[in-house]
TrEMBL record:
The keyword Zinc-finger does not apply. This is Lysosomal dipeptide transporter MFSD1. GO terms for cellular component: lysosomal membrane; plasma membrane. Lysosomal dipeptide uniporter that selectively exports lysine, arginine or histidine-containing dipeptides with a net positive charge from the lysosome lumen into the cytosol. Could play a role in a specific type of protein O-glycosylation indirectly regulating macrophages migration and tissue invasion. Also essential for liver homeostasis. The keyword Aminoacyl-tRNA synthetase does not apply. Homodimer. Interacts with lysosomal protein GLMP (via lumenal domain); the interaction starts while both proteins are still in the endoplasmic reticulum and is required for stabilization of MFSD1 in lysosomes but has no direct effect on its targeting to lysosomes or transporter activity. InterPro entries: MFS, MFS_dom, MFS_trans_sf, MFSD1.
Amino acid sequence: MSSRRVLLFWSIGVIAYVIAVFHRQSLGVAGLEAAARLGVASSGLAMLAMLQLLVYAAMQIPVGMLVDRFGSKRMLITGAAVMSCGQLVFALGDDLLLAVTGRMLIGAGDAMTFISVIRMINLWFPARRNPLLVQLTGLLGQLGAVVSAVPLIHSLHEYGWTATFLGAAGIGVAAVLMLAAVLRDRRPEPGAREPVLRAAWAQPGTRLGMWTHAATQSSAAAFLLLWGYPFLVESQHQTPAAAGVLLTTTTLVGMVCGPPLGYLAGRFPLRRSWMVLTVIGGTAAAWTAVLLWPGRAPLWLLVVLVVVLASNGPGSMIGFDYARTFNPAARIGVATGIVNGGGFVASMAVIALVGVLLDATGGDYRAALAVQYPVWVLGAVQVLRYRVKARRLLAQLEERLGEVGGGEHAALGAQPVK
Ligand SMILES: N[C@@H](Cc1c[nH]cn1)C(=O)NCC(=O)O
């Protein structure tokens, strides 16, 4: 397979992922219209968003197993088709039940996309290029969210709800056609029918990846998805415009620091856990400074916070690199699903607990945001624990390979397609 074709297939996968992120975020810019059309308050809208994320997170492991069984192409096509149906239901439905059905379908289709693209990268590219390509994939996906907001808002105001979401469904149909016409896939691995879930879970490297993803991404995810804006406006008394700029800074700086981190992870694989611990420690330190600052934190400190939070997304991608290096190709989908599911369960837990604590304390953001500390501490401890276990296993394996005359370090890792 020529490297040009491999790059073409990766680009097609990335486009499918960008479209998935577009579908995922499409409720975010339609909040006011959704509230009026469906007759719900903010809590109803939050429930719609949470249900979509819940379906996404719950489907990670089943989808990972399906990706291993049926390959990336079929799963990407199915995902794009399911998201398109979700947008269709959302476009035509005018009550809460249909809106919930639409968003759940979008969560389900979305769940099939990222894992399938990561599996393609793991199987098609040489190991040393993987961390960078995974970072670029994550980065370009975020770009999808940034560039889709303005056209969606414009379309909602210009053409209305039904036309806008029918258009979104149409983009999904175009994605299905593009994937079916251009993408090629490998036949499933012969070992793909083995009970891969138990084996992937038993591998300490998978759990190292899962805790990495959970501890690094949850703070920025909770900040960007829900609590950052109200925290900056209500607690830090920033203007809505300044809060918007600070939130955008996190996304944009994250895009800048992704490639260097991917390069470093590929160049120094034995230092990946130090990078992860630095991201967790830096995030905890920045939040501590903001939360302990008497009264309102100065703007420079908030800028430090959003810049440090920008390292969370790229740092979380190291989790997928662990899944790749510690699992054979036949179970790379399910291992990636475990890593991704862990990150999203942790993010949802932080989002929900901050909400519960805000209610319980009458809106005390300091107390509510302190709920992140147990997540960081548990995550860092588990990263250290599973790092030891994974290294021990690797050392044993190398010893055994040495005895039988082997010697390739990547005995466990997903191999590129020749
Ligand atoms: N950690 C994110 C991706 C990311 C990369 N940079 C910022 N965010 C992730 O888990 N992605 C999975 C997905 O489906 O988007």
